[in-house]
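Entry 14. Structure prediction run on the chain below.
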Amino acid sequence: MTNFSDENWQQIKVLAARLQAIKTMLEVFNEQIENRPFAQEFNAIKEQLEADFEQTLSALLELIEEDDD
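Output returned:
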């Protein structure tokens, strides 16, 4: 593994924590909302959470790859 700077480690920790938080929110969202009569009304929120997860994951991967260069 490469030697990340302290700043990069902090960014990695923040992004990883964010990913975990979003994942947990999506799991709770799915448990509480899916298959309910009002589920359609919350699709925009679910889609935003999923997009945020993907964007955060991409940022994390870019940060890791950037340090490899």
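DSSP finds two helices and no strands in the chain.
Filed with the rest of this week's runs.
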